[in-house]
Specification:
The chain is α+β, with helices and mostly antiparallel strands. Helices cover 45% and strands 9% of the residues. The chain is globular and about 55 Å long. InterPro entries: Nitroreductase (IPR029479), Nitroreductase-like (IPR000415), Nitroreductase/BluB (IPR050627).
């Protein structure tokens, strides 16, 4: 965990299918809300498909770097930020030669209305909270899906590190999610949650630089 950096500079050498399957197996071992297990993983290794995706990746990177990614994050050394930007641009410019991509997807099971259960739920929560729950249903559903995907993604990243593979989680594709889904034939009712480039690293792992624990803990309340 302490050396699991975002590794964006990758060698073009292929990653054996056996290792990619081990990464997905690690992801499958992650917890899933209600044990629904509605996840699927699109694994891309075909250079022709990667070449089709490369322009979409470049558009997403350029859009991000022109807005949220265009400023040095608070507390980050400017020189470290410049190195990160250089790695992002390297990945953008060499994306077509990325050995493998893993795209975690999720199809939430269709709801099964239960009038009696809904009545009991409303009684337990109270009128005001039940109304808030109804109004925030879309956001809650998104959080539920994410909680069933991202623990598996972390497992995948840790498994990659253990195998000596470089990987990093990105969500920039969500700015053009419809285009990505069309390019990969992903059904409309399936949501995508990340694009994870995987390959053999050009650089070295770790250590990660994070805020000290004492600066982020708040005990017994905010």
């Amino acid at each position: 965990m302490s050396t699991l950096r975002a590794m964006r500079r990758l060698k073009p050498d292929p990653v054996p299918d056996e290792l990619l399957e081990r990464l997905v197996q690690a992801a499958v071992w992650g917890p899933s809300g209600s044990n629904a297990q509605g996840y699927q993983y699109v694994v891309v290794t075909d250079p022709a498909v990667m070449a089709r995706l490369a322009p979409l990746w470049a558009r997403c990177v350029d859009a991000y770097m022109a807005t949220a990614g265009g400023a040095v994050p608070e507390g980050m050394d400017p020189a470290a930020y410049e190195r990160m930007v250089a790695a992002i641009h390297h990945q953008r410019d060499h994306f077509a030669k990325t050995p493998a991509l893993v795209i975690p997807c999720y199809r939430y099971p269709a709801p099964r209305p239960d009038a009696a259960g809904l009545k009991k739920s409303a009684a337990a929560l109270g009128a005001a909270a039940s109304l808030r729950l109804t109004r925030g249903q879309k956001r809650i559903m998104s959080l539920t899906e994410a909680s069933s995907v991202y623990p598996g993604v972390q497992n995948l990243l840790l498994a990659a590190r253990g195998l000596g593979l470089a990987a990093n989680i990105t969500i920039w594709h969500l700015m053009l999610e419809q285009e990505w889904k069309r390019a990969l034939g992903i059904p409309k009712d399936v949501k995508t949650f990340a694009v994870i480039p995987v390959g053999w690293p050009l650089g070295r792992f770790g250590p990660v630089r994070r805020r000290p624990v004492e600066s982020v803990i708040r005990r017994d309340g905010w």
